[in-house]
Amino acid sequence: MTIRLADLTTLGVGGPAADFVLASSEAEIIDYVTSLDAAGQPLLLLGGGSNLVCGDAGFDGTVIAIGNRGIEARVDGNTVEISAAAGEPWDDLVAYAAGSEWAGIEALSGIPGLVGATPIQNVGAYGQEVSHTITRVRALDRRAGQVVELTAAECAFTYRGSAFKESPDRWVVLDVAFRLATDVESEVRYSQLADALGQQIGDPAGAQRVREAVLALRRAKGMILDPRDPDASSAGSFFTNPIVSDLVAASLPAECPRYPAVAGVKVSAAWLIEHAGVTRGWQARAGSRAAVSSKHSLAISNRGGATAAEVIELARSVRERVHAAYGVELTAEPRFVNCSLGPIEG
After folding, report:
1. For 120-131, how does the pLDDT look when each residue is reduced to its tens digit (9 = 90+)?
2. Which residues belong to the active site?
3. Whole-angstrom Cα distance, residue 99 to residue 148?
4. What is the pLDDT of residues 239-262, one digit of tens each?
5. What is the distance between the alpha carbons of residues 123 and 136, in angstroms, rounded to a whole number?
6. Gene3D superfamilies, from UniProt (predicted)?
7. All domains in the chain, ordered by first residue
8. Which of 139, 220, 248, 250 could form a disulfide with 244 if both were Cys (CB 3.0 to 4.6 A apart)?
């Protein structure tokens, strides 16, 4: 039976895989990966498939679906440490924590994918990032051939990045530990979320209440997986908010939203896209089955039967329009498998 990557990813594009296995335990993950590495065979680790753009030619190797499960929680005074297997659905973990009114990851509700992917991307939304609460990550070091435990500092988290993302062929995340607060409410750090809650930035709110507000916001943007919503057939936010120098930030229109960053100024990719003439629902050419989401300018949607080539054509067009208008180069957030955006032309 031929397995198509299009059927394993939320964007719904990608050709066939040469082989496919489900690793339902940590031992199976380690065995499959080490055996294939020893044989010099290519492999692709697959979580929830929510952050992948797979090429139309498919993948000439083995796709290993991460399927280990398990959550353990240990309360220690006013904190709780939750250890979750890489194959646990991320939103199930968030729902469990928010339902217990444990604060720290509730603003990350509704994000598709598995727990193991979250430290790789340093997943973040609505003022929270997983790096704020991760205490350690256990991972298979393919280079050394052994399981190691990395502290949060050793994960080298950055905005939408980490040591795992910098060396994607080295690490296989096995489980992740988070430390959450049990005795305080969540601090609202994002203006849109504060507005939805009828509060001010910095005000506290219960974890479950924050979760419900975030789910409503994401649903309105087509960012909740829903087979009835064509906008939901996407890889989420396709571009990250660019971090630019003070000089570049000063050259942008004053109304472009900007936020402080560790190195430079973070500016709104959505604003740049919309003001470069890319409207919601925009297509690179008439008849394309890939379109900018009708609900959110950062998402690229498969409107039904789109190919990876159509998605890439659209992403390139969006990126080139922003660069031509503002001199800022957008960086794609998904991982590309057997395809790429390539350099900006001209």
Report:
1. 999 999 999 999
2. 160, 237, 333
3. 31
4. 999 999 999 999 999 999 998 888
5. 15
6. 3.30.465.10, UDP-N-acetylenolpyruvoylglucosamine reductase, C-terminal domain, Uridine Diphospho-n-acetylenolpyruvylglucosamine Reductase, domain 2
7. 3-66 (3.30.43.10), 71-220 (3.30.465.10), 230-337 (3.90.78.10)
8. 248
